[in-house]
Design goal:
Helices cover 42% and strands 3% of the residues. The two termini are 22 Å apart. The protein has one domain: Orthogonal Bundle (Arc Repressor Mutant, subunit A). The longest helix has 10 residues. By secondary structure, the protein is mainly α. It has a two-stranded parallel sheet. The chain binds a DNA duplex through α2, α3 and β2.
Length: 120
DNA sequence: AGTTTGACAGTAT
DNA sequence: GATACTGCCAAAC
């Protein structure tokens, strides 16, 4: 793949890798940080295409409502839930995370913001 | 080489 | 206020 960050997925990987321990973010936030708010779908698709050898904390990426959207991509939602709880993130029985507490906006990260400006 | 689908989100009715 | 439609880019078929 392109490690220079030319493709959308490459940039997504980079942003996901920056998610702080114990924090979570959303597809829309990442897409918006990259300058394409409408491309939220691509973010999810990019994560679905993660090679695997890349140690990306994909379990920290949730949908807009804090729901573990990609739970079944880990084999079972409970796996993702366990990963998050292990980081101190409280996950409800319905696999929902309180974004008001654990949400991390990529747009507020200087490194991510620099990446966005590089795109323009 | 063209078509279809995919971890979503925002707007439009 | 809730439901439906569109937009977006890349990868798999």
């Amino acid at each position: 793949m392109d490690t220079t960050g030319t493709t959308f997925t490459a940039r997504v990987y980079r942003v996901v890798a920056m998610i702080p321990y114990g924090k979570v973010t959303t597809f829309g936030a990442i897409a918006r940080a990259l300058g394409s708010p409408k491309s939220a779908r691509m973010v999810g698709f990019a994560l679905a295409s993660i090679p695997g050898h890349l140690d990306l904390p994909a379990h920290r990426v949730l949908n807009r409502y804090g729901f573990l959207s990609g739970g079944w991509h880990f084999g079972h939602p409970d796996i993702m839930k366990a990963e998050l709880e292990d980081e101190g993130v409280v996950v409800s029985g319905d696999y929902i995370v309180d974004l008001g507490v654990y949400f991390w906006d990529p747009g507020m990260d200087p490194e991510v913001d620099a990446l966005r400006e590089a795109h323009y």
